[in-house]
Structure formats: C-alpha cells, structure tokens
Design brief:
This protein has helices at 31-40, 51-55, 62-69, 85-94, 104-107, 109-119, 152-160, 183-192, 207-216, 225-228, 234-242, and strands at 2-9, 12-17, 20-27, 45-50, 75-79, 98-101, 124-133, 136-141, 146-151, 166-171, 197-201, 220-223. The protein is an alpha/beta fold and 243 residues long. The protein has one domain (2-242): TIM Barrel, CATH 3.20.20. An eight-stranded parallel β-barrel has the order 1-4-5-6-7-10-11-12, surrounded by five helices. The chain starts with a strand and ends with a helix.
Length: 243
C-alpha cells in the first residue's frame, strides 16, 4: 500500500533533511487540496506527523490536526508527541484511524503494551527510526535527537508477544534525501519478522524505488518528499504496485 506523508511545523507542510530541524524545506501546497487529491486517486491512508509535537509534546498542533482529521474519506495515522492515554483518546476522538508511538516506547514500555491490548493491533503503530553504524541499527527518538542505545531487533522481539502488527521503520540517513530507500534494511527485517506489516519510510524518489521495495516484501511504503516535489503522481505509484 502507498501511504503519502505530510509533516507539519507551525501549520506548514515541511520536509526535514535527515531529520534535521535546521535543514527543512517548506512547501506552499494546501494540505486540504493535497488530501482531496489523495482521495480522488483512491489513496486509502495518509500519514500525518506533528513535528512540533515530536520535539516538544506541549506544542502539539491540535487545531491543525482537528482540521485535518475532520475529513472522513481517508484513514489517517498520526504521530508526533504522543505520550499519554489522553493524547491517544484525543486523536481517536478527532478521527485518527491509528496513532504512531515512538519516544514513549522507551519511557513506558509496559504502558505501551497495555495500549496495544486495549486498543488493538490495528490502531497502534510503533515508529522505530534508526541510525545505522557498523551494522548496529540504533533507534533514535525525540525528533531523532536522542539515541536510545537499543537496536531495532531487540524492540521488535520484545513486542512480538503483544502481537504488534504495524512497525514504521525509517532509516534517518535516507529520510528527505531522495537518494533511494535502504533496501537491505527492509529485506533483512522482513525476512526475520514475516508477521510484521512494515511501513518503509525514507529516500523514495522514483517509481523504480517502489518496484525495488515491493521486491523486499514490504507491505506499506510511506512517501513524502517525492510526491511534494512531483517526482511521480499518486496514480503512477498505485499502478506500479498493482503491476
């Protein structure tokens, strides 16, 4: 499945370069028109990231999210600064289909496990964003500024007993670069964890990247910058997956 992504800072659509808040590109595109275009092209899911909330949970863009989530013709998964059950309940109330959890996984792991049990595997996505050094896939959090010292495999192993289904994995070194996805990373993860519906994120720049990701067996492909910069259309991306 193709999942377009929109990241927001102060209500504006942006893309960061390798997760660096100081290296952002701002787009003038209307998110309302972008979402309408998704719907017209039969896009089923849209990934929304509140980058202000990711950096500081007290600065969540709730008015923006409320405006976006009122559209009931598409499924939204929302991430950025989700730390409490109140945060989750608020987003579900506003209309989110799924919530994306990251930093809280490492602060309150057992709480997150309880949320998976309570809300179900269809409604929780674990975002495991990694920086790779000497083959060690270290997860980073808090807007990709803080290193956890934990590898992605250890986290997945821990949550398998809770029947986690969706994991969004981003290779930070590829994110926002248009240099192509880390195919080896997804091939390895999917081979080791065939039951997980991985969402591949970072680096997609061409239809050929989609073809190569499909070959790895990845279930979902998140695409941000390539769509915003018109590298290809929603229709072309969907047709590519169908073929």
């Amino acid at each position: 499945m193709i999942i377009p992504s929109l990241d927001f800072i102060q209500g504006k659509i942006v893309r960061l370069y390798k997760g660096n808040y100081l290296k952002k590109t701002q787009y003038q595109e209307s998110y309302f028109l972008y979402i309408e275009n998704c719907i017209k092209n039969n896009i089923k899911n849209l990934h929304i990231v509140d980058l202000d909330g990711a950096r500081d949970p007290k600065r969540k863009q709730l008015h923006l999210l409320q405006d976006i989530l009122k559209n009931k013709n598409i499924n939204f998964q929302v991430g950025g600064g989700i730390r409490t059950e109140k945060d989750i309940e608020k987003l579900f109330f506003l209309g989110a289909k799924r919530v994306v959890l990251s930093s809280i996984i490492f602060k309150k792991k057992n709480v997150v496990k309880n949320w998976i049990e309570r809300y179900g595997q269809e409604r929780i996505v674990l975002a495991l964003d990694i920086k790779i050094k000497n083959s060690f896939k270290e997860v980073v959090v808090a807007g990709w500024r803080n290193y956890t010292g934990i590898c992605i495999e250890d986290i997945i192993d821990d949550f398998l007993e809770n029947n986690i289904k969706y994991i969004l994995c981003t290779d930070v070194s590829q994110d926002g670069t248009l240099n192509g996805p880390n195919l080896l990373l997804y091939s390895e993860l999917i081979k080791k964890y065939p039951s997980i519906y991985f969402q591949a994120s970072g680096g997609v720049s061409s239809i050929n990247d989609i073809i190569n990701l499909k070959k790895t067996g990845v279930k979902n492909i998140i695409i941000g910058k390539a769509f915003l910069e018109k590298k290809f259309t929603f229709f072309e991306a969907i047709q590519c997956l169908k073929k």
